[in-house]
Structure formats: C-alpha cells, structure tokens
Write a structure and sequence with these properties.
With 207 residues, the protein is of the alpha+beta class. The chain contains 5 helices and 8 strands; from the N terminus they run H-E-E-H-H-E-E-E-E-E-E-H-H. It has a single domain, classed as Alpha-D-Glucose-1,6-Bisphosphate, Chain A, domain 4 (2-Layer Sandwich), CATH 3.30.530.20.
C-alpha cells in the first residue's frame, strides 16, 4: 500500500466557470421515478434487513436500484440525505461537499471524491421534493464536471404495515469521461448502490 507521502492528488478538468460539453446523455427523471415491482422473495429480503438490488427499465436501458428498510422516520432519513455539508464525515470517499446555490426545489451541490490519490469533482442539480417522497438529480450542466453525466434519485417511503420502518430507494446512472481512470471509475461505481443505502441506514438509525 502506498504511504500517504507518496500519494499526489490528481485533479481533472472540472471547471465551475464554463458550461458542461452537453446538456445530458442519460435519460433524466421528470417527476417521480417509476415504481419498482417487488415479489414475495424481495419483500422477505427487505424484512431481513438486507439490501435488495433490482433493475429498472428506462429509455436508455437498465438501471440498478438499491432498496433497504430502515428503522427510522422519513424526516430523520431526509435530514441525513440533505445534509450535504457533512457528507465528508458520513460518506466514504467524499472529501469535499457543499451547496453553492439553492433556488426553490433545486439544490446545487459541489462534490469532490478522493480515490487512491485521484480527485473527481462534479456539480449536481438536485430537485428536492421530500413532501412527495423523492429527490431526483442530474449534473448541473452550467458547470463542467469530471463526470460525463450523472442521473439518479432517492425515494423515502413510510411503511403502513410497520410504522417504525421506512423504505429507502436509491438509483444512480453514472457515465465517466476519459479523464477518469478505469480503476477509479470501477471503485466509484462497483459498490455504489450498496454503499449508498448502507451509510444512510447507519446514520439514520444512530441515536
């Protein structure tokens, strides 16, 4: 393993002063994400406390969805998801994070991921609708990100059959630019779905 003194951080082409090269190459969500059908076996997996991974069909193809039941109220879960300023303390590999503009439902957030000496910077436009149970996002195409594109959502649903439990859904579709080395892309995407739901569960159930 490399010693910290041997690691020099590599930054790429992100630039908040210029526009992204395009306005989106991944199908974005307009309104609430489509519902995910669950079988009896799926419900059993969720009841056991495990992460359930499913596939969702969208115009651009299949998209992974992670689901998990959390023993916390929806308001508690949303308080963690929306606490971007504390992501570096809560979320692995996030070294910097913070909002740079809020306009109505839109929350614009800068993220920096640090992976084995490489920093990946990107800018997200969140459409936040917790009162409707979901939040969606795309890149902020007014700023140039190291990611080629990113689209996804969080959904938080109270469970009438178990008032102490809330169901969390997370999905993200990331496209990488040539600036991001393959090993960095693999590390970011390979465990992304499972890791995302796991940190929210950990932080939301913490007393």
């Amino acid at each position: 393993m490399l010693g910290l003194n041997l690691v020099a951080f590599t930054a790429f082409a992100a630039d908040a002063t210029v526009a992204h090269p395009h306005r989106g190459v991944v199908t974005a969500y307009h309104g609430a994400p489509p519902a995910v059908a669950l079988s009896a076996a799926d419900l059993s997996t969720l009841a056991s406390g495990s992460v359930l991974l499913k596939q969702q069909q969208v115009a651009s193809g299949g998209r992974g969805v992670a689901m998990m039941d959390i023993k916390a109220a929806p308001a508690q879960i949303w308080s963690k998801i929306l606490d971007y300023g504390h992501y570096p303390q809560m979320v692995d590999r996030v070294s910097e994070c913070g909002n740079y503009r809020v306009s109505g439902e839109h929350i614009f957030t800068r993220f920096v991921l640090s992976v084995l000496g490489t920093e990946v910077e990107y800018f997200i436009d969140h459409t936040s609708r917790p009162h409707l149970g979901y939040l969606t996002w795309t890149l902020d195409y007014a700023r140039k990100s190291d990611l080629d594109d990113s689209v996804g959502y969080w959904r938080v649903t109270p469970q009438a059959s178990s008032p102490a439990v809330t169901r969390l859904e997370y999905s993200v579709d990331i496209r990488f630019t040539g600036y991001v080395p393959g090993f960095v892309a693999d590390m970011i995407s390979k465990k992304g779905l499972t890791d995302a739901t796991s940190w929210v569960k950990r932080e939301s159930e913490r007393r």
